[in-house]
Amino acid sequence: MAGTGFYESILDNDVFKYYADGEWKVSSSGKSVGITNPSTLKVQYKVQACTQDEVNKAVESAQAAQKIWAKTPLWKRAEALHRFAAILKDNKNEIAEALVKEIAKPHKDALTEVVRSGDLISYSAEEGIRILAEGKFLVSDSFPGNGRNKYCLASKIPLGVVLAIPPFNYPVNLAVSKIAPALIAGNAVVLKPPTQGAVSALHMVHCLHMAGFPKGLVSAITGKGSEIGDLMTMHPGINCISFTGGDTGIAISRKAGMVPLQMELGGKDCCLVLEDADLELAANNVIKGGYSYSGQRCTAVKVICVMESVAEELVSKIVQKMTKLTVGMPEDNCDITPVVSQSSANFIQGLVEDAQAKGAKFHQEWKREGNLIWPLLIDNVTPDMRIAWEEPFGPVIPVIRIKTVEEGIHHCNANNFALQGCVFTKDINKAILVSDAMESGTIQINAAPARGPDHFPFQGLRDSGIGSQGITNSIQMMTKTKSTVINLPRKSYTMG
């Protein structure tokens, strides 16, 4: 059970504590924030409503701890991360339970998220050693007009304090995807967990605490974004912001100033199915890529653009496979579980009703009970329908029948979102040409969009984000280059 046994120190009566200065604390506000279970629609957990003063103290502690951590040998930083990963994996069951209760993630997927997070931490430790152990040596006579009397030694140094803001759908994995690269690079971290998903993240932080990192190096501040959000994102002590979420990221980017940003803000991932595609493969990937975790993934299939000549057969295959999807509670490992909130469910319903009013064809009956929405394939979608463009973040996929490949590419490129896309064809030449024409951060060939493996580059164009993620890119992004130039009294040439 969450907050018991190994995790008992993070709970105060029925409210989970926040983490700062290497300790679990109760906020001086005396207030808490409730977390509603998407399945029961009742308050499942409570977390501290931290104050602005507590945010300031956490940042100050992080600044002090970072100076010490930056002087810690790289191999010792890696050792600490490996301890963190091992402890996380050993204590995964309580975290998985919290994921089930607060974001309705199927239990098997919740366990997978925790184990995957441990693997990500360990890989970050090793990749950090590979990247940060090497510098660059330059000599001056490689540039015209110079002799060899200057040596430049360039190396990577930490940015300082990284503000990490993960989303509700992967509150553990997308937290450690920011924390681990930041720490191996010598940074401190202030974590602002999502409200929905905060308890899972706090359990993860306790594993970090037990791994023995310096006090103040990592903090986890819970509370209402409306009260502490602007302070955190505009704080002069924050040197980098890594954010995964929605439109809030655009507002953050406008306020952040001269701070490096790493942002992933959603997608309307287009699945383009050509006439020569393996339709069985495409249908299987639509089911896996569009309906897993009820479509609440930035890389879920969000729209299918299929050539008219094969549309009927593809749709028939998808509809048949949809009958095998189980719908129910996350504790039962159902494929389709409740979406995260009533507001999300209402938004999805609004998109569906708009499509219905404008003449779309429904292959299943619309059905909703509370936050639980039955999977739906909406056919004959036209550009005037909201669902053709907006991200539902639910188990609802629109199908647009196209006459030419160019029509599908245009639909992909006309959207403000540009995170990922995919193309199904047996012709590798077509696949490459279409991939080049689709303006998205990643194009998958003959597979559904996906984030991962976690060391692959992951980025979006346009409103889908800034910068690139993935372990290697995150480490690079959370460091900067410092040069030391040695000026010799005269030109010097080895063996000269």
Sheet with most strands? 7 strands, mixed
CATH homologous superfamily designation of the largest domain: Aldehyde Dehydrogenase, Chain A, domain 1
Poorly predicted residue ranges: none
| Helicity range | 25-40%
Q: What is the CATH domain class of the largest domain?
A: Alpha Beta
Total discrete domains: 2
CATH topology value of the largest domain = Aldehyde Dehydrogenase, Chain A, domain 1
Cα gyration radius (Å):
24 Å
Q: What is the number of strand segments? A: 28
CATH architecture of the largest domain: 3-Layer(aba) Sandwich
Mean pLDDT metric: 95
Structural class: alpha/beta
How would you write the strand order of the largest sheet?
16-19-20-15-14-22-23
What is the overall shape?
A: globular
The number of helices is 14
CA-CA gap between termini: 72 Å
Proportion of residues in extended strands: 15-25%
Family: Belongs to the aldehyde dehydrogenase family.
GO cellular component, one term: cytoplasm
Subcellular location: Cytoplasm
Pfam families: Aldedh
